[in-house]
Amino acid sequence: MNTTDTIHSIHKQDSLVEVSNLTKKFDDLTAVKEISFFLKRGEIFGFLGPNGAGKTTTINMLIGLSRPDSGTIHIAGRDCINNPKAAQHLIGVVPDESSLYPELSGFDNLCFCGSLYGMRKNERRDRADALLKTFGLKQAGNRKFGGYSKGMKRKLTIAAGIIHNPQILFLDEPTTGTDVAGARKIRGLISDLHRAGTTIFLTTHYIEEAERLCERVAFIVKGRIVQTDTVKNLLQPLQGRHMMLFSVSNAKDNLPEKLSEHFSDYQFQSLSPERIRIESNGPISLGPLVRFMEEQNTEVMEARRLGPSLEDVFVDVTGIEADILRKEAEKKGGGI
Amino acid sequence: MKQWVAFWNILLKDMRAYYLKPPNISWGLIFPIAWTGMFFMKSGKGFESIPSLLPGVIAISVLFGTTSMLAVTITFEKRNQSFKRLLLAPISLNLLMLAKTSGAIVFGSANALVPVAMALFLADIASVSWPTLLAGIILIAIVSTFLGLFIAVSVSEVFEAQTFSNFFRFPMIFLCGLFIPVDALPLVLRPLSYILPLTYGVDILRSAVTGTNIMSLRLDFLMIILFCVILFCISLRNVNQKWIA
Known about the structure:
The structure holds two protein chains of two kinds.
Chain A: H1 3-11, E1 15-26, E2 29-40, E3 44-48, H2 55-63, E4 70-75, E5 78-79, E6 91-94, H3 106-116, H4 121-134, H5 150-161, E7 168-172, H6 180-195, E8 199-204, H7 207-213, E9 216-221, E10 224-230, H8 231-235, E11 242-249, H9 255-262, E12 267-272, E13 275-280, H10 286-295, E14 299-306, H11 310-318, H12 322-331
Parallel strand pairs in A: 3-8, 3-9, 6-7, 7-8
Antiparallel strand pairs in A: 1-2, 1-4, 4-5, 9-10, 11-13, 11-14, 12-13
Chain B: H1 2-19, H2 22-43, H3 50-79, H4 82-87, H5 93-122, H6 130-152, H7 158-175, H8 190-194, H9 197-209, H10 217-243
């Protein structure tokens, strides 16, 4: 029995989704390579990684829109490789693009999505009404979906994903393309769904979002899962570390190197020409640092203590700067 | 039962979103009227030529009506990702594709009513075998729709679907006996006629309207049903291989 088998046998009792050794190739490119994980009933599971890491390919295989080359997928005990339709009535999907029908109203879109799951007319009308109210779209319910703002489209797409009360909800970049207030509202709705008992599989570029929402996360890089654990466990090793973020101006390119030479107990990282991150296993003395930087003709605009974050864990584990993920999300039109 | 709720609502949604839109209703009316009028005037033989023109005009109306719409209802939805929503529904792929094509079959069959109604007013078509005519219209609508489906799932853009459709549609006007009888075609072209499904559909219509069919009705029905099955199965296989890759 290998490690994966052991993990699966331990968690089999309460897992709703079990994925084992899943691989997907596109010609010469291996998009997903032998990944294994499980989702416990009622949890929010985050799937984090940069563009092209294999997040959407994995979701597509789980929901039956793509065939794996090898591996197994079980959802609620059903074999979804041999019969991809077996669990589709249990799952809801919110794709990264708002793919509803522009020529139908918000209400009609929801009713139509309900009908795809066999919901009767009165049942789906009542549910659509309730969801429009919950998502703050009641007034816009009779307007065509094509005329909605980005944030409204995103909310209606999420509503369409849960019209049939799925046991598991797959959310692909739910806040991408929405403004700060919209993203906050969507996160609130995700938390509400979680409290109502829905199991949620969430992919996101925003590590802060995953940290706020998820109980467990997996980091995926180049098609491989490099770490899976609870957010709490992942943050544990960082508890003793001290971190600060300096915002500076007029800094020379070699300032981090000079700081490293002068303060050998600290680690310095230049996040941008205006931001320097400092880490240490012991307390960081602010005064000497500020004085040294001023001697270097660098003006310190702000110094802020940082708590341990999932972003730090992600950077440690994957070697990928979290800024890269944030920029990718911004390119897609998002804001957190 | 739940699958049939989905089937019925996909059909209704397509009807509302695509087929009952004013441009398509006008297309469904103007196109058959234009074809009927054009061939009637071109024949120059007066009202008595209408029965001989009717099978061709019915066939062309159904063929263009169905294949044009499939490019929109399938290719467009595939392009804007909304087709994925249907693929995620817990209904079988067979039933899903039947639901997506049923609207076009109904629309195509309704297109055929325009030349039939015109013929009823303008000519004596009392000898028409209505059950055979109706069966012929429905089978032509089905086979044309499945041809449209085959084209729609083979391409990724709406304009490609329209272009690819024309590659089949225009040769069929000349090769399938719509206005030029198959036995009047040059010998070298006749084999092409017999590998095109519309030839058998038009022959059914000729049998119903003028009794001038060139093959047995049994063979016509058998062949057109065979084409329906083949085109539908190939389309399903393509969806399975390309869209759920």
